[in-house]
Amino acid sequence: MISIQSVAHSYQNATQQLSFKDWQINDGEQWLLLGESGSGKTTLLHILTGILKPKQGEVKISDTSIYQLSSKKLDQFRSRNIGIIFQRPHLIKSLTIAENLLLAQSFAQLPENHERIDEVLKSLDIIHKKNAYPKELSQGQLQRVSIARAVINKPALLIADEPTSSLDDKNAAAVLQLLMQQSGLNQATLVVATHDKRVKDAFTHTYDLA
What we know:
Blueprint: E1 2-9, E2 18-19, E3 23-25, E4 30-34, H1 41-48, E5 56-61, E6 64-65, H2 71-81, E7 82-85, H3 97-107, H4 114-123, H5 139-151, E8 157-161, H6 169-185, E9 189-194, E10 205-208
Parallel strand pairs: 4-9, 4-10, 7-8, 8-9
Antiparallel strand pairs: 1-2, 1-3, 1-5, 5-6
């Protein structure tokens, strides 16, 4: 379960504090985090993912109050328990797809697990690209690798940041289907953060910053 309680944040020299309503997310649920630019969506994403400590309030993931952890333990906890899919893939170009996924395991201080890598790549239908380099993949294949990297360590929380905003309707629907399928396969809670209202009907749970 993920929860945020009494969370608020303000930036230096800012005249206004951002306050967020309490949010309870049960294991395995799929949520849409909806907010326009300037609504605080990026701030809340950073707070949820352990990147930005709020000025007040508590964030719990799997019963762990993440901001009570030391910086080192928080980094390790994030690597093991939070998978993030960015709008653009951030892969190391000099490494193969399999090596990029091994690196994700290493960051989490987990042992190398080649069977897990094969399992995830097969589920995303890109096992044939395992030994290829990022430059050899199409944009759609790179997106699948980004999802693979996010789920490789079986995180409790899977977050996709604006995954559809630059896509046409057909590809946006395909990416959403992949995200929901992978969150189910890996028993991860899914939060899709976006200002793209096209995806609203795909979710039964919405946290709206409007």
